[in-house]
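Quick one, tokens below:
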């Protein structure tokens, strides 16, 4: 004859107090714990050992991703700077302010990609630097082709617009 499984399992006892039955387990390690062993945590009930482990709640941009974000921002800024220098030869007038907006969007999104989509003030400042770098490169390219100082060819208002938009895009 076959035995019928009634679906009732043996009672679970606390890992630290074997005489105490419990239905609660640690949210981190899964160890069964009784009310005396429970430690309330922001993410559930934990055992004393897991509650003691330090966990940083602060998320930050790691060094390797920051370096990658800086390199991507400089690369994107250099490419956009060459395009801006070429566009500047067409005397586009007011369209340069609209172009600055798109330079900021592109710098912000490229930097976000380089930072592994981490949003924060550090990423935002890297993006703003990449957008500003685009205008510095554009001024340098124009100065090299025409002659004179690069400071004379940098559009300060366009640089500020692009840097602001890039900051907002990445933060």
């Amino acid at each position: 004859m076959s035995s019928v499984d009634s679906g009732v399992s043996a009672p679970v006892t606390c890992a630290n107090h074997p005489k105490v039955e419990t239905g609660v387990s640690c949210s981190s390690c899964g160890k069964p714990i009784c009310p005396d062993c429970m430690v309330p945590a922001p993410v559930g009930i934990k055992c004393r050992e897991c509650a003691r482990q330090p966990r940083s709640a602060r998320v930050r941009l790691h060094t390797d991703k920051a370096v990658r974000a800086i390199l991507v921002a400089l690369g994107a800024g250099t490419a956009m700077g060459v395009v801006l220098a070429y566009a500047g030869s067409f005397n586009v007038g007011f369209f340069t302010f609209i172009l600055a907006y798109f330079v900021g969007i592109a710098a912000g999104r490229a930097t976000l990609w380089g930072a592994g989509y981490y949003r924060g003030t550090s990423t935002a400042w890297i993006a703003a630097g990449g957008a500003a770098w685009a205008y510095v490169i554009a001024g340098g390219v124009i100065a090299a082709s025409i002659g004179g100082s690069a400071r004379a060819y940098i559009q300060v208002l366009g640089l500020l617009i692009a840097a602001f938009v890039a900051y907002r895009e990445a933060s």
